[in-house]
Design the sequence.
């Protein structure tokens, strides 16, 4: 069922407790998975009870208004009362105001969830029983090739961006490049999700409308007035042994270039968030976050909501952050449009879920790929460019960031 403007859509929603279920990925559709999980917790969806589509600069504002109408008209029975129970929609939004990609909110027909040791099933306009775990499909390997922006083209774009930054046009811009491959017929995407969720358990592994990936960055998490976010900017490759790994972490923590890049991203988020919250807290210095392939500079932010904004309202004002666009944002976006010869689609946009009360969890869609209906797979990775960026080093950073999604497919 799809939404049409002005139409009142009535959903009947019922959540029931289940015996402990793990893992969630084997339960979803192999070709059209709906998943948002971290550390084995989260939600997985099957089917579509409702699909809402949005485009253009107002896509997230329109989504917030449409979701409010859907939630107000729904009949919800939810005795469990945990984040992710009751009426929920999984969503993914385009990065750019001018993107041709469709931004979506999808209400599954069935949602299976797990949090804090509690498992549940939610049925939306459905009497379906718990689906059995489906056997995995045949293993496959996908080879990627450079897309619209070759490695040589990328270093040239970085060099151009550095010139603009040194001319004081802007302070930072995030430039991405793309890789392209093609899925074999009837490929089981759950194999990709299982690989990502096991290999990167501290990241949000997601699959929404053909966008799949595993992101380390929390754009916003909202629950009963409490707000949390995690800013990532600045990165370095892991070492080959314990000593070199520790040296890499120290080098990152003391890098002026990476700390400047991180500070731009953090201050961008704090400035926006303070307009909607109070008691905003974050550490004085970023910490080094260890992932299987990278060290990141990270800052966690906590705040208390003051104006009743929903998670959809918040992503509309927070996106795009300096961590995925640059600063000042309008100048950075203009330079991205000039130097990137492709539509980012939903790469670096918000991906996550929203509940009937507006609470939800939203990550930044990083370490990800878009899967087109014809099986074309386009992966993206980017790097933050500042005045002393070296084009070859920034290219190497994108190679590191491609690693999770490329290895999962190959």
Sequence:
């Amino acid at each position: 069922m799809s939404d049409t403007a002005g139409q009142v859509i009535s959903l009947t929603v019922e959540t029931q407790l289940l015996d402990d279920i793990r893992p969630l990925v084997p339960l979803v559709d192999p070709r059209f998975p709906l998943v948002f999980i971290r550390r084995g917790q989260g939600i997985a969806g099957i089917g579509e009870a409702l699909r809402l589509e949005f485009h253009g600069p107002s896509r997230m504002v329109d989504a917030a208004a449409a979701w409010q109408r859907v939630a107000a008209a729904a009949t919800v029975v939810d005795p469990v009362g945990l984040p992710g129970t009751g009426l929920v929609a999984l969503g993914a939004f385009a990065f750019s105001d001018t993107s041709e990609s469709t931004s979506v909110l999808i209400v599954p027909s069935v949602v299976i969830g797990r949090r804090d040791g509690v498992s549940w099933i939610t049925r939306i306009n459905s009497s379906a029983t718990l689906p059995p775990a489906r056997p995995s499909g045949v293993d496959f390997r996908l080879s990627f090739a450079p897309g619209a922006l070759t490695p040589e083209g990328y270093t040239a774009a970085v060099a151009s961006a550095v010139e603009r930054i040194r001319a004081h046009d802007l302070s930072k811009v995030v430039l991405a490049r793309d890789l392209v491959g093609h899925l074999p017929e009837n490929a089981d995407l759950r194999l990709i999700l299982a690989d990502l969720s096991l290999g990167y358990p501290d990241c949000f592994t997601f699959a929404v409308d053909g966008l799949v990936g595993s992101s380390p960055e929390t754009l916003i998490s909202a629950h009963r007035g409490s707000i949390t976010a995690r800013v990532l900017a600045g990165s370095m490759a892991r070492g080959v042994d314990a000593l070199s790994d520790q040296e890499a972490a120290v080098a990152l923590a003391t890098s002026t270039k990476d700390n400047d890049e991180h500070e731009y991203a953090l201050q961008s988020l704090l400035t926006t968030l303070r307009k909607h919250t109070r008691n905003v807290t974050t550490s004085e210095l970023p910490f080094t976050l260890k992932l299987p392939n990278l060290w990141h500079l990270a800052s966690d932010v906590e705040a208390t909501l003051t104006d009743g904004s929903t998670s959809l309202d918040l992503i509309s004002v927070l996106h795009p952050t300096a961590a995925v666009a640059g600063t000042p944002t309008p100048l950075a976006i203009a330079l991205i449009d000039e130097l990137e010869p492709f539509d980012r689609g939903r790469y670096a946009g918000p991906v996550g879920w929203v509940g009937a009360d507006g609470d939800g969890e939203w990550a930044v869609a990083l370490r990800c790929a878009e899967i087109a209906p014809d099986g074309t797979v386009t992966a993206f990775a980017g790097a933050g460019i500042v005045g002393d960026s070296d084009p070859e080093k920034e290219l190497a950073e994108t190679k590191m960031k491609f690693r999770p999604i490329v290895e999962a497919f190959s």
User: Anything to note?
Assistant: The chain has one domain: 12-131+141-409. Residues 1-5 have pLDDT under 50 and may be disordered. The helical segments are 59-73, 151-166, 190-199, 242-253, 256-273, 311-318, 329-339, 391-409.
